[in-house]
């Protein structure tokens, strides 16, 4: 029978919130736009960032990338006390990204290959219409990102 692993040395990694996950996703967006990540790797890393619970979960996502990086585990300065919300207004709720926003980059990257395979294998007249999947997928992905911001 094996013995349980000893507890990790040092303090545990601090838990992160929505703001830290959003900062990580924004940094990944910047790396995608700069061409440092391809669409598939961006999709994998952004899914892991969206599911991260601690700062240690985010650190490996940026280990091979230059700045911009989110501040890992840094405690932000205490914000000034906010005024109480107006009683007649309901507090805003944060919407989780949908499946299209989460998997859209990978789907958009695969659409040209899918269109080419369909064009070459499906024996119909005017098979070129399969190439219309490419701009359609780009439009769907862009609209899902616009709705989420």
TrEMBL record:
Pfam families: DUF1707 (PF08044)
Record field: compositional bias (Pro residues): 1-14, 68-84
Keyword Membrane applies: yes
Amino acid composition bias (Basic and acidic residues), ranges on this chain: 39-56
Alphabetical keyword list: Membrane, Transmembrane, Transmembrane helix
Ranges where the record places region Disordered: 1-20, 39-97
UniProt feature coiled coil, ranges: none
Bilayer-crossing regions: 103-121, 127-144
Record domain DUF1707: where: 15-66
InterPro entries per record: DUF1707_SHOCT-like
Protein name: DUF1707 domain-containing protein
Protein species of origin: Actinomycetospora lemnae
Origin organism lineage: Bacteria, Bacillati, Actinomycetota, Actinomycetes, Pseudonocardiales
